[in-house]
Amino acid sequence: MNARMQMRQAQTLGLNQQQQQSLRLLQMSGVELEKTLVDEADRNPFLTVDRGDAGKRVHLRDRPVRAAAVATGDWLEGIAAPKVSLVAYLTEQADLQIAPADRTIAYAIISFIDDAGYLAEPVDQLADRLCIGSGAVLRVLEQVQNFEPTGVGARSLSECLLLQAIEADEDCPAMRALLDNLPLLAEGKLSKLERLCGVGSAELGALVRRLRHFDPKPGQQFAPSEHGWLNPDILVREGGNGWRIDLASGALPTVTIDRSARAATAKCRDADDKNWLRDCANDARALVKAIEHRQRTLLLVATAILKHQDAFLAKGVGALRPLTMREIADELGIHESTVSRAVANKSLLCPRGTFELRFFFASGVVQESGEAASAAAIKNAIKALITGEAPGAVLSDDALVGLLRGQGYDVARRTVAKYREALGIGNSSERRRAGVLRAATLKAA
To answer: Which of 41, 46, 171, 232 could form a disulfide with 349 if both were Cys (CB 3.0 to 4.6 A apart)?
Structure first.
C-alpha cells in the first residue's frame, strides 16, 4: 500500500466561540450561571456582578479579621467559613445517597423543607405536583429523613423528635407515648402522661430530661435558604387579557461592564497589557450579549410552550396535551437541540405550583374524539379511579381500561399497567391485600 497526500475541498458547518458560549449559557441552570458569572467577573476587570442584597463579590482581603487572630498570628482563624444553606447541604447528601431514578423526587421534597427543617408540603399534594403516587414520595421521604441533621424532613414536632430518639437509641414505647401526647406535657398534665406512658413520676421525669436534649428545629443551624431546587426562572400570572409570562426578576445577578476599566485601558502604556485589556473588553461584551440572548430565547420557548398548554393553567394536569420539542422548534424557527437546552434545569412558577419546563413535554395517546391526550392526563385519571375505588371492589387493569374508555381514553391494558406502576400504585391483588390488612388493623384498634 502506497501512502499519498490529497487535498479536498468541502463545506462544513461550525460554531464560532461566541455561539458556543451562548449555547453553554443557555443550558445552565440559574445557580450554575450565577457561579459562572461570578468566576468570570473575578477574571475579567471589565465585568461587575451585582447579586442584589448580596452585593458585589467579596475578595479575601476584604474580609474582617478578628483582633485575637491578628495578635496570635493565626490568620486562618480570622477567615469565617461561609454558612451553607440547609437546601444545599441536603442536596449534596441526595446526590450521594439517593438512586438517580429517585433524585427528582428527593429534590422536590428538599425544596419544600423549610428553614426549621420541616416538610412544609403534605405528601399527597407533593405527589400531585409530581404526578406520581403518594407511596413513591413516602419511600423517598424516608430516605431523606435519614440525612443529617437528624430530624430533618419531619412533618410534625413529634416526628422530628422521634427521628432523633431513634438515632440516639432512646426509642421505646414510653418515649413514643410521650411524643404522641406532647400537648399534655405543655399543659402540665403529668399524672395523665404517667398513665398513658405506663411509667412512674421519676421515669417520666427522666424521659422529659432526655427529650430536652433533642433539637425541635434541626434546620436552624444552617444559613437561610436562598435558592431551592425549584427556584423559578419563569413567572406566569393572570393578566387582563389572559396569562402574563415574564422572566423571574432577581433569578440572575445583574452583569454590567465597568466604565472605570475602560478608562484604565485608555491610559495604559504597555502594549501587552493593553492587548490583554482589549481582549477582556471584547470577552465582557460577548458575555453580556450571550446572557441577553439566553434570556430572550428562554422567554420565547416558555411562551410557545404555554401557548400549547394553556388549558393546564385553567384545568390542571388532566388538560395537558401531548407536545414535543420538535413542534416548539418548528414554530420558533430554531433547532430542536436549542429548545432542549432552553428547558434544561429551568422551572416555571404558576398558580398551580412550580414545575420543570420539561414537565410540559408529554407523550400521549389519541382519544376516541380524535384529540390527543397526554400521558400525565391519563395517569391523573388512573389515580383518580383507584383513589375512588370501593374497599370491596378493587379495580383490575382490565376494569380500568373500560372505565378510561368511558372517559374517552382509548388505551391498552399494558399502557394502564405501565402508567399505574409509574405512579407507584400496586396491582389489584396488592391493593386488595393492603385493604384487608388495613381493615384488620382498624378492627384490632
So the answer is: 232
294-309, pLDDT tens digit by residue? Answer: 999 999 999 999 998 8
By the 10 Å C-beta count (0-12 exposed, 13-18 middle, 19+ buried), 55 is classed as: exposed
Alpha carbons 237 and 259: distance in angstroms, whole number? 37
Q: E-assigned strands of 171-257?
A: 234-239, 242-247, 254-257
Question: What's the CA gap between 229 and 29, in Å, rounded?
Answer: 10
Whether this model's pTM surpasses 0.85? no
The residue type of 158 is S
Same domain, 188 and 170: yes
Distance of CA 381 to CAs 7, 129, 401, 411, Å? Answer: 63, 15, 11, 12
pLDDT (0 to 100) of residue 333 = 93
Q: For residue range 347-375, what is the model confidence (pLDDT) as tens digits?
A: 888 877 778 888 788 655 545 444 456 67
Angle between helices 336-343 and 325-332 (to 10 degrees): 110
For residue 382, what is the enclosing H or E element?
Answer: helix 375-387
Cα–Cα distance measured from residue 382 to residue 198, given in angstroms and rounded to the nearest whole number: 46
Element (H, E) at 355: strand 353-356
Query: Do 288 and 216 share a structural domain?
Result: no
> What is the bridge-based pairing of β-strands 353-356 and 347-350?
antiparallel
**If you count DSSP H runs as helices and E runs as strands, how many of each does the chain have, helices first?**
21, 8
State residue 373's pLDDT score.
Answer: 61
Q: What is the DSSP letter of 45?
A: T
Alpha-carbon span 420 to 131, nearest angstrom = 11
* Inter-axis angle of helices 271-308 and 325-332, nearest 10: 110
Are residues 272 and 299 both part of a single domain?
Answer: yes
Note whether 306 and 243 are within 8 A (CB).
yes
CATH number, domain containing residue 404: 1.10.10.60
Residue 359 per-residue DSSP state: G
